[in-house]
Amino acid sequence: METRSQLKTHYWVRASPSDFGGTLPQPRSGHTAVNIGKSKIVVFGGLVDRKFLSDLFVYDIENKLWFQPECTGTGSDGQVGPRPRAFHIAVAIDCHMFIFGGRSGGKRLGDFWVLDTDIWQWSELTSFGDLPSPRDFAAASAIGNRKIVMYGGWDGKKWLSDVYVLDTISLEWMELSVSGVLPPPRCGHTATMVEKRLLVYGGRGGGGPIMGDLWALKGLIEDENESPGWTQLKLPGQAPAASCGHTVTSGGPNLLLFGGHATGGWLSRYDVYHNDCVVLDRVSVQWRRLPTNNDRPAARAYHSMTCIGSRYLLFGGFDGKSTYGDFWWLVPEEDPIAKRLTTSLPTVIPENKNASIANDSFISQDKEGQTEGSIFSELHRKLEVSVSLNHHKLIMDELEDREFAELASQVNGEKFPSNVQALRHHWKMSSPESIQLKELSPLLRDYQRLIIRHHLNKVDLKSQPVESGFPERETFRYYHIRNAMQLRIDDIPSLLAEYKELLSYVKEN
Fold first, then answer.
1. Statement: residue 149 has pLDDT above 90
2. What integer best gives the mean pLDDT of the chain?
3. Quick one: which of 1, 180, 344, 425 is 20 to 30 A from 208 by CA?
4. How far apart are CA 350 and CA 494, in angstroms?
């Protein structure tokens, strides 16, 4: 049995002004960013404030310079390049970037362009064969250095599940006939060629659900003489959450999945956005959480993530309210960029911790603060999370917690000394399915209250911390959550289970 290797710890570092020269792209989402060899990254299009973009920005990797080339070219309507758009596909073949589809306003596009990045010339292409219908939110990948495969998308009326292969020399499209079991139609997914297979993950499917399935398509390599066919892959490990609008970036032996959004489920009518890093380890063939520092970029979707050597570069995206224009590096711990985080690097989220933990550092200014700081350092050690004094002060007492007090007053507490104990007993006896929406915020705060209060009760403020009563092996994954809106629907069972464990070995007031 193969032993999996240890994943390198990576660090998120917000890019500094000294990292780039030239004119940086403005904020956007739904854009594309492709690597042209190892020399440059080309960013095209996108959307900001309901405005669709057609601008082109290029990052010269060697000179660390952003610039906007003066492009030439003519389209069928006399324009120099493609019309403004977002949610299109862009694939690089050698020095050429191919663009297809997308959305401009309420219209789905079906035009086809190529940019020669050696002379910065756009050409609108007249293609042949089985022409794909206009669509947005499709996904595509290069097959070697000649062909492109595209899967799925949304045509304005239905989710699509068709597969097209483009020969970039003959400019002929061919719809691939695939027999057997097919993935559900979808859009907003990713499609990545790995060896001889196209891997498709996630997306939004027919009827609206956001999916977390992984599929592999064979039969794309002519020399292999395989019949095209789909296989659903159910890999071991810590699989990512169901998502749409995420990115999958190839780097070394791993595929890195970052960001995306999913439906809020019980918690909200709004979507929930992600900022965790999950890798598909191609060696051990399993999902693994990438160990990272706490200072993560804001959760987002429809961003871009490119690979520059051992570094990843994140740009842009949307979180349901704001469009981002920030740049972030994700680098291994030995990278010089990681050294910017000072000699004392932030707490690292280990690979086996399924949590996104806020990095709230604190510095004690007096003896009392130093004592409290040491208490929280001990709590940090016990729970294996990053804990801040600010967060502790935000967790109010039961009597000040109006939602908690109101909910407690509604519970039948005749058998208990107080409504508080009656409510805690109610939760102790509840199943995840029986928890109502109105209970989630009070439940989360009481969970955090029990962690803090009962740890502090076990600490001698005038001496060294003593045994807290918490099992050494236990990790409380939701202490860092500031608001129940940050929870995912699949967090509820584990949150309730951890809460019940707290009640089992913590003496109630």
1. yes
2. 83
3. 180
4. 18
Q: What is the predicted pLDDT for the residue at 505?
A: 67
Task: Give the count of beta carbons closer than 10 Å to the beta carbon of residue 72.
Answer: 13
* 249-253 own/partner pairs: CB under 8 Å, 24+ apart: 249/305, 249/306, 249/307, 249/312, 250/192, 250/194, 250/307, 251/307, 251/310, 251/312, 252/310, 253/281, 253/282, 253/283
Q: For residue range 272-321, what is the model confidence (pLDDT) as tens digits?
A: 899 999 999 988 899 999 999 878 999 999 999 999 999 999 999 999 89
As a whole number of angstroms, the distance between CA 106 and CA 128 comes to 26
Q: Is the pLDDT of residue 470 over 50?
A: no
Rounded to two decimals, the pTM is: 0.70
Distances from the Cα of 330 to the Cαs of 89, 240, 327, 334, in angstroms? 24, 18, 10, 12
Question: Which of 43-47, 129-133, 294-298, 319-323 is least confident?
Answer: 294-298
* Whole-number Å distance between alpha carbons of 103 and 136: 6
User: CA nearest 491: which of 247, 262, 246, 210?
Assistant: 262
Which residue bears the tokens 């086809």?
A: 112
Pairing of strands 51-60, 311-315: unpaired
Tell me the mean pLDDT in the region 128-156: 96
Instruction: Tell which residue, 134, 156, 28, has the closest CA to residue 89.
Output: 134
DSSP designation for 86: B
Beta carbons of 155 and 133 less than 8 angstroms apart: yes
CB atoms within 10 A of CB 2: 7
End-to-end alpha carbon distance in the chain: 51
**Calpha distance 273→280 (Å, rounded):** 20
**Strands annotated E in 50-88:** 51-60, 65-67, 72-74
Residue corresponding to tokens 């859009």: 187
Quote the CA–CA distance of 113 and 96 in Å, as a whole number.
10
C-alpha distances in angstroms, 55 versus 45, 82, 92, 356, 450? 6, 9, 17, 34, 53
With beta carbons less than 8 A apart as the criterion, state whether 508 and 421 touch.
Answer: yes
Beta-strand ranges (E) seen in 71-146 are 72-74, 89-93, 96-100, 103-104, 107-108, 112-116, 121-124, 128-129, 139-143
**Distant-in-sequence contacts of 339-344, Cβ < 8 A, 24+ apart:** 340/13, 340/16, 341/11, 341/13, 341/293, 341/295
Helix (H, G, I), strand (E, B) or coil at 494: helix
- Please give the structure tokens belonging to residue 350: 């280990």
Q: How far apart are CA 33 and CA 305, in angstroms?
A: 7
In this predicted structure, which of 297-306, 455-464, 497-506 has the lowest mean pLDDT?
455-464
Say how many residues make up the chain: 509
Among candidate residues 334, 233, 331, 351, the one with its CA nearest the CA of residue 290: 351
Q: Read off the tokens for 303.
A: 């961003």
Structure tokens at 378: 């001990």
